[in-house]
Input
Amino acid sequence: MCLVSMLIGLNSSTVNVALPALTRHFDATQLQASWLILGYMVASTACLLLFGRISDIVDQRRFYLGALALYTICSLACGFAPTVDWLIWLRIVAALGGAILLGNGATLIHAIFPRDSLGSAMGLYAASFPIASLIGPIAAGMILEVTDWRWVFWMNVPIGLVAFTTGWFLLRRKDEREEKTSLDLPGNVIVIAVITLTTVGISLVTEFTWSSPWVWGSLLLALALLPALAFAERRSRHPVIDVETLRTHGIGLLLLAGFFLSAGRFPAIVLMSLYLQGPLGFRPSETALLLLPMPIGSILGSLCVGRLSRRWRSRQISSFGAIVGQLGVFALAGGVFTQNTWVLGVGLVLMGMGTGLFIGSNATSLLEATPESSLGVVNGMRLAVQNTGNVLSLAVALTLMTIGLSPALSDAVLQASIPGDPPAEVIAGFGYALLLLCILGLIGMTLSIVAALKPSPEILQEHDAVALQGAAEPT
Output
């Protein structure tokens, strides 16, 4: 699972670096270039709940290995794409396989490892993605220096083959579940439509602005579908969004905490990249080095989850991670206003460590609280709400960053090409964006702490065991 997570992380980070080379090779338009990234993101996010529910119904091992084979084949085919349109569609198909892999990784780990070692396993799994994100840009840069863009995709093939072979022999078939569930097809179709319209609409903000009919039209249509979704879910025996499940053991609180904390963290790396290259005037290579504390901190935080899980419950670890990450966001805001790179570095480390501590332990908390028949769909919901939060907060943060600026200065900020000393309103724009992240992070941190204060499933089981033991003792 760690190898597969690294495969997906490499794919995302390497394609981002190779995007200029792909645009030049295919002579792609701006819209086509954006859909090389956007198409993958939308398809992956929109189908997470559907594939999560399917994994609760079918043979999870076969489903997972089939998705891994599809992902590997698509990586091979991407290198042979004759046109940019072919490449876009191949990446969309690969994203479907990626959604299955992401949606099932944590649930497979939960099924394989006993509770006393689950925290360590989940921490290692959570660390694999930032490791790949750290290696990916370096690998892509070296590949593009030596050869052409095709090898950015072909490098995934041997990794996929090794992961498939390993999974074929190591993944065990699970016993058939006594509790049968069915697929809520109408609900899933509406959920896919809502997530797709929302993600596309928000993602187009940076290209067309909020006043574009493409943006608000997509968002209004998504909003109009919500009553139909509520109607379909009330009629379904096994709804894709089960309100009763969300109320169980604070699952809804944990999901909301993940949404707000992801929304409060994801835009930071983009904002810091623009800030370092724009107002502070660092070169791209220098900026890449200055941003390294973020993924390094995330790796360290993820690896600490296992050690902390020996003393703390997973909900306590995720709350601690939320607090550490929030301190990092506050430090970033202070570093921007003081223009102090050392303070920014401390903020990036703290935010990375907090994120690493939170992600794995939040996933563990959710899976511990979820009935076995809903593990796949709840994990898919976790990833979907986090991805949606990422897209929404980035669009709003970039809007706040350029609010009150002239069109020319706004373009200069987004292109990190501010001439001379930055005007005060530019620094203020970065401050507004970071204020948004502070508010979102505080909401997520509060929700995480409230969820930690609720009795977790393991505590309730211990209380039940004590009560049964007391009842069995003779008086």
Summary: Residues 28 and 88 are 11 Å apart (CA to CA). The chain has three domains: 1-171, 187-235, 242-454. DSSP finds 23 helices and no strands in the chain.
